[in-house]
């Protein structure tokens, strides 16, 4: 009963082309630079300001690997959501089963997993402005509009960002209110998806000064995404009863449509020349239908489901940021309260059918008279309630000082109330979970994760060319899981209700059979040496560590899992060349991931998390921006990650991991490639702007390439799920602007590539592996946009 929470949700020539174009830009660019036209016809690469080190700095002066997509990049690449921008961040990989049901990884630090509500904390932190919005059930799919930039900070960010930034951090920075004058705008989009219907996007913003010291900014959006997966007619005959299940009431074409609505309101008040208040409220609601993975055994972009699949995801975040000066030092307080309510209905027919076929379990599912149910299909009602509050107070010195520092404290508490109600209609009360009619299995638990930290980071210029940076973060965490999980005692005499040790029912469960806590502490640290050749070129070496707290297994018979740790060694460079016509940055790195956490489905498809052995990742990442002539910009980035197991991973952590002769078989052998992350990822975008009469016109093309990947860590499961093949995605657009008016035609996934993003089975792979689901990139989408700013 584990992977259900995520189930909600060849063109070799083009692959070679993408790789060749990327390589030619990266490796053969020097000759082209030398042949660039005269200076008067040549543009320069614009400066990018980031706040990765919690102060505003030119990206070229920050000694870490950062990719930033500013507001222009986001608009030019037609970015609306997570999957739109993440494909241009090659250091980032992910597993997804539906919008906002996504687990994010960086630099190959991935063991795979099922995204279960009681799983590990994320290894990549997600921030909206100053506040963390990371949740256990996946990265929020924040609608991208009126956004200043998206920052991707690769490598451990433990010193400044803490526990859930073990391998990196994603930051979404919004546009803030401005007192400089009134501004407003709106953007409208209509689109059509192959194998689907029409969709739309409507967005708008208003920036209104109240007086010379205060301004308000209001933003709103509404989006409808067409479905493209069909639920087709089918039947299943249950072996134990002979009953035939028919899905006729639920047959529907392109049934995985999504509607997203949201708004943001921010107020900026300058109390005086030194102190500013910035309260902000963001809210979004998303309604989903259907599922986002198809069954190849049924057909391309087709499934056979036998009960409703839908989700309603509502969240809001209220935040307050206060900035000011004490003498020459900047003081910042950032606090946020986040709440998310997720209500789901999921078809679980695969579990019902395959457990009956393999184990004959259907013979035990009876009605009130003791008669075996003819079609004992399971369906799941899920209710998830997230509450999160965070507070950070920090003091920083001026960026112009020879000794520059940031010191502060951080406090966070997040809770997750979990309801997973597995229903079989007409189930006998004698075998149902007490107080929950027709419920064969119930999860009713409260998870609370708490952490606090004190941190500091300082940089000292030893000479005009050489600087040293040191940082440390002391942390404590305490994580607990309490409540009920399992069957009623009328169905099982050794699990669920039969294992209860308390009759206390704080939330409605029949009793309590799980109440455990794990806590710990320690420190993460960082040291960096940077050598600056001149203002345009520098190199750096960084040693940094990151961590992820341990937690409690929802199977109370298993021990808690411990924290894991990442140590990273990075050699990087930042360069601006040829009078700032070229920006070329990159890094090579080696990472040691020790005692890493990984999750898998055990008995009854119940998620188990344990600490495995070690893994090592060797990699290279780089990005380049080139403005060869006026109007033409070429941008490319790529990453190579070679992540391998340093030791065998065995089925049990309580028995020595040898060669399996002691009854503890090797499930993933030494030197096996880590899952999820491709060895090679790259992208290339070319944009040319030119005059067309009275209009400023442009054409643009983008290629995104990803090498083949595995969906699971374990060898047996890989044999069932198969390897996800490499793919190349092509996007093109053309448009024009005149004054405040913009018009653009675009095509995403031009060649309708069926790119595999994730593969999964709805229950334990060895049981449900006959029904594999593939989550694809959305099919070819053609759209037109109209924008007006005033």
Description:
It is a single chain. The longest helix has 16 residues, at 12-27. This protein has 8 helices and 41 strands. The relative contact order is 0.15. It has a 22-stranded antiparallel beta barrel. Strands 3-8-9-6-7 form a 5-stranded mixed β-sheet. Strands 1-2 form a two-stranded antiparallel sheet. The chain has 790 residues and is mainly beta. It has a single domain, classed as Maltoporin, Chain A (Beta Barrel). The radius of gyration is 27 Å and the shape is globular. The termini are far apart.
Helix/strand/pairing class, anyone? mainly beta
Strand content: over 45%
Q: Tell how many strands the DSSP assignment holds.
A: 41
CATH topology grouping: Maltoporin, Chain A
Number of helices: 8
The general outline is globular
Task: Domain count, please report it.
Answer: 1
CATH class assignment: Mainly Beta
Which segments are poorly predicted (pLDDT under 50) over 5 or more consecutive residues?
Answer: 2-41
Terminal CA distance reads 54 Å
What's the CATH architecture name? Beta Barrel
How much is the radius of gyration in Å? Answer: 27 Å
- Quaternary state of the chains: single chain
Overall pLDDT, averaged? 91
Query: Would you identify the CATH H-level superfamily?
Result: TonB-dependent receptor, beta-barrel domain
Give the helix proportion (percent range): under 10%
